Model the fold of this input.
Amino acid sequence: MAALPSIKQFKEGILAGNRTLLARAITLVESKKKEHQLLANEVLNAVLPHSGKAVRIGISGTPGVGKSSFIESFGKMLVQNKHRVAVLAVDPSSQLTGGSILGDKTRMVELAAMEEAFVRPSPSEGGLGGVARKTRETMFLCEAAGYDVILVETVGIGQSESTVRDMVDFFLLLMQPGGGDELQGIKRGVLELADALAITKCDGSLEDSARQAYNEYKMGMHILRPGKEDEAWVPEVYLVSSHSGKGLGEVWECINRYTKKSHASGSLSEQRQKQNIAWMWNLIDERLMQGFLASAEVQGQLATLEEDVRNNKVSANYASEQLVNIFSQNNK
Amino acid sequence: MAALPSIKQFKEGILAGNRTLLARAITLVESKKKEHQLLANEVLNAVLPHSGKAVRIGISGTPGVGKSSFIESFGKMLVQNKHRVAVLAVDPSSQLTGGSILGDKTRMVELAAMEEAFVRPSPSEGGLGGVARKTRETMFLCEAAGYDVILVETVGIGQSESTVRDMVDFFLLLMQPGGGDELQGIKRGVLELADALAITKCDGSLEDSARQAYNEYKMGMHILRPGKEDEAWVPEVYLVSSHSGKGLGEVWECINRYTKKSHASGSLSEQRQKQNIAWMWNLIDERLMQGFLASAEVQGQLATLEEDVRNNKVSANYASEQLVNIFSQNNK
Done:
């Protein structure tokens, strides 16, 4: 990395929509070097007050459902409607596979080439927690740079969806034609995170089965989708084709209705404030646990006590007390 | 409390099925006094190797669904089949209301009066985490005392179901006749914890709507219940009447099929070992957080930084770093 710009240069550049400085700030956020992380924190704090003006949309679905085709078509439509679109991703599996969703340069080529779009692959290190933190901070940087729609793609691996749900305003779940069987790939609880479902591939030979899936999900959501008494939003189901563009406009209208409604009721800013606080506490948890695990004295006892708990030799409560006592005594 | 028995007396008494010593051990587990907690840990560790022989069943459902009537009838049936049944509860709301599920002595009177049954109200202090820990340890004490079926009742308040799911082998969700509308009370994700659904009140004037609900849930589960490719169990739906006893036997057979199957495959003991380890880590988390929050230096900064995070003045990452640094610097 060339000589680092100053915080002031980063701030002014990002606020002016300078893609190069935005990209470099994101690289700092993703860096493992301590000095980069410190600078990243400063830059982020400097631009944070200018963030928050975008619509934050999480998009998920099992492999093969057509996430990238959808995002390419959906993003291009938004750009044509004078929006500036940032596409980010949370893919904790990328560090295992080496690859990364959005990393493949052959995906979303047209969208990525657009001046009004910014496509960034998933961070490839840090586990789900670390990847999500970096993506979340990247989202704030993109908002400060003037992108007014943020699309956060995630893979259908269960935990990652709820993590993404906690950083966006609206969660869209893509489903394939074929009905119940297709659900085998979807992890428990994911359906219930969705603010809307979109049945993809409603074109050509799949159109009929897409319509059938649509009817089944409509009915299924009516029967099984739990909600709260005070719930102001009932998840909607759409038929879309990334190929023909069918339904993309309706999905966008749906998202606008949702955000208008939750903006008017104040629930949008309330949700975002709650998300901020929840993230702070998650990170505190993470850092406390890191300190705990870094203790040599804890490591010395951990394996034995874990084995005793596994086999009911000692209670989980007893073991946790022992370990935390060891930790605090040796870190005074 | 009278002079405390020795650990040896507790152990021998509990293993001999002495109800008085069992009840006193549970009181120790629930006590807030440090010396009681230390003794409780010793007693629990002493009997733990003798626990684990029971079938652990979680039972939930929204208020009015008929949980206590079901448990009364179901428990009596089990006792008639020569089982010894312990009924416990996780009700974090009890500390707010003062009351507690199972606390009302007019509930389950017949079951509670049986020599082969042991009914214990929910601990009334400690928040969800604390209440769950106490109930979980009470479960182990009851198993050591020879109860071979443990029924853990919980209220339908969302988080408590997944907490109970993490301490039992099988999770039964009770639903009312009336179909979709009844679901309004059920929190997201709860349906997906269920290993079986039982539609209650299938008798008298409600029988028809119970049958209708049965068909809807059967279909709904088929359409929407997500699963893993490797999932060996598909949740079943039953019609029950606590009044006539209809369906209670089938539910018990279902639970037996499930436990036999998961015992044979080894997934039962695997799940229990995982549950033990997960609980240990939850408690470590809890204790680390307690230590963090107990720090005066942290408390001095917390409110300000929380407010700054809420309003995007500083990032969640930055604030968490500051607070954890303050904590560790002042606890060295």
Summary: Strands of chain A lie at 55-61, 85-90, 117-119, 149-155, 170-175, 196-199, 236-239. The longest helix of chain A spans residues 267-294. Chain A touches chain B through 73 residues (CB under 8 Å).
